[in-house]
Write a structure and sequence with these properties.
By secondary structure, this protein is of the alpha+beta class. The chain has two domains: 88-245, Jelly Rolls, CATH 2.60.120; 254-326, Phage tail protein beta-alpha-beta fold (3-Layer(bab) Sandwich), CATH 3.55.50. The protein is built from six helices and 20 strands. The protein has a 17-stranded mixed sheet that branches. A hairpin with a 2-residue loop joins strand 19 and strand 20 (321-326). The chain is globular and about 60 Å long. The model is unreliable at 55-79 (pLDDT under 50).
Length: 330
């Protein structure tokens, strides 16, 4: 029948009822003791609440500190960068025509010569027909074209205000120098490239490697152009040719004495943005065995000319290739 209990459940209920019948009511604590217990509990609750408030205040203060730091960082990043003068950052390797350095306050500049040191806070300028090659303290080499204007901001940062600058990072760390431009910062990743600022338009031409311009970037064979109004376009570009020709007049001097012809050919190819190809195994063998003596010049094309005049090798430039052969130009 529904609701009926089995004998075992009935027996347990009988035992419990018997126990409850003999149990006496629990005594209440004295009124004073009860008040003390309540006061003790209230004190514990108050202390716990106070700790929670203090924790919330600490968290709020920490969050506020982070917010203030972020705002301060934003203000610093967005504020005009003021160079701290006096820190040596570069050495002049060679000059062409007139090149000078002057304080930022616009006072007259001093003409630069090979061996001069440059420090932060200075502004470097080249005159029409002039040019300048520098070695940054990290080993990176820089070349400034004629009518260029650059500001030395810090040991890891410079600003190109006008003109063109060529960067070669082969002898220095890849992350030791960035450039401020109207279109944003330029940061490289191990490369050779050129940056230009002409009438507010910024151009980035990459011969080798990859370079970032602001949030965008370009790789070898690409040119990124950003107008003064922010309009952007990307074009294909050869690593050799007329727009790179000015860099060959400011090549860092190379020690030619004791080098093989093959080494000098590879150097000439790198400086002109061309590859070197041998027309035969015999031409390669002769280039690797022939050793040059004395100073045979600085500019790559002059070096090629002297190699042809003093060895049995002939070289011909064909677009992006230097073709080397035995006896006569191919």
């Amino acid at each position: 029948m529904k609701g009926a209990k089995n004998p075992h459940e009935q027996a347990r209920e009988d035992v419990l009822q018997e126990l409850f019948r003999h149990a006496s009511p629990r005594k209440r604590p004295p009124s004073g003791g009860e008040r003390e217990i309540r006061e003790s509990l209230h004190a514990q609750w108050s202390a716990m609440t106070q700790r929670r408030k203090m924790k919330r205040r600490s968290l709020f203060a920490a969050a506020a500190s982070v917010a203030v730091a972020a705002i301060a960082a934003t203000v610093i990043l967005e504020s005009p960068e003021v160079p701290v003068p006096g820190t040596p950052v570069a050495e002049v390797l060679l000059t062409r025509g007139h090149a000078s350095i002057s304080p930022r306050d616009g006072s007259p500049g001093n003409r630069l010569s090979a061996g001069d040191g440059l420090a932060t806070g200075g502004e470097v300028k080249t005159a029409p027909g002039g040019g300048l090659a520098l070695r940054w303290h990290s080993g990176i080499t820089l070349r400034l074209d004629q009518e260029s204007h650059a500001r030395l901001l810090s040991p890891t940062r410079a600003e190109l205000l006008a003109g063109r600058i060529y960067v070669d990072t082969s002898d220095g760390p890849t992350a030791e120098l960035s450039f401020k431009t109207p279109a944003g910062p330029v940061r490289h990743e191990g490369t050779r490239y050129m940056v230009g600022v002409i009438s507010g338009t910024t151009s980035l031409s990459v011969r080798e490697g990859r370079v970032l311009l602001g949030e965008d970037g370009a790789s070898a064979g690409e040119q990124l152009i950003v107008s003064a109004t922010g309009e952007q376009r990307r074009e294909a570009i050869e690593p050799y040719g007329e727009q790179w020709a000015w860099t060959e007049h400011l090549v860092t001097p190379i020690e030619t004495d004791g080098r093989t012809v093959a080494e000098l050919l590879a150097w000439a190819g790198m400086e002109t943005g061309r590859s070197v190809e041998y027309a035969s195994n015999e031409a390669r063998r002769l280039a690797e065995q022939a050793v040059m003596h004395g100073d045979i010049g600085r500019e790559p094309k002059n070096v090629l000319k002297l190699i042809m005049e003093t060895t049995d090798l002939k070289a011909e430039i064909s677009d992006g290739v230097i073709v080397v052969a035995v006896g006569a130009s191919p």
